[in-house]
UniProtKB/TrEMBL annotation:
Transmembrane segments: none annotated. SUPFAM superfamilies: LDL receptor-like module (SSF57424). Disulfide bonds join C20-C38. This is Uncharacterized protein. InterPro entries: LDL_receptor-like_sf (IPR036055), LDrepeatLR_classA_rpt (IPR002172). Signal peptide: none annotated. It comes from Timema shepardi.
């Protein structure tokens, strides 16, 4: 699935890669991991930057589609789904707590905020 922040008209050689605005390809596992792997996205024809990191933009949509964590009503949180329970009991968490090696959803289910996360390596 393509997200609006990665549609550029150019492609990386592997489907497991993400194309930065600079043309550099990074591992897709590094997208939305709370670490800037691309240079900040350009915003002007003179090369100015918004200061936003291209691989860390629109991450709510990424986590919703990739990790199965649904959006909350608030613009800055995600919902931990607890199957078989009233939706009022669903817990909202901030995206920064996804894949942080702590089960913030605490639902004991595969739709945890830690499900589908890849192990991070130190460089």
């Amino acid at each position: 699935m393509l997200y609006s922040h990665i549609v550029t008209g150019r492609n990386c050689t592997s489907p497991d890669e993400f194309l930065c605005p600079s043309g550099r390809c990074i591992r897709r596992a590094n997208v939305c991991d709370s670490q800037c792997d691309c240079a900040p996205a350009p915003t002007t024809s003179r090369g100015g930057s918004s200061g936003a990191c291209a691989d860390e933009m629109e991450c709510k949509e990424y986590y919703t589609d990739v990790h199965g964590v649904r959006l909350c009503d608030s613009s800055n949180t995600l919902t931990c789904i607890v199957p078989g329970q009233n939706r009022d009991k669903d817990r909202c968490i901030h995206p920064q707590y996804l894949c942080d090696k702590t089960n913030d959803c605490q639902n004991g289910h595969y739709l945890s905020d830690e499900f589908g996360c890849r192990k991070r390596r130190c460089l």
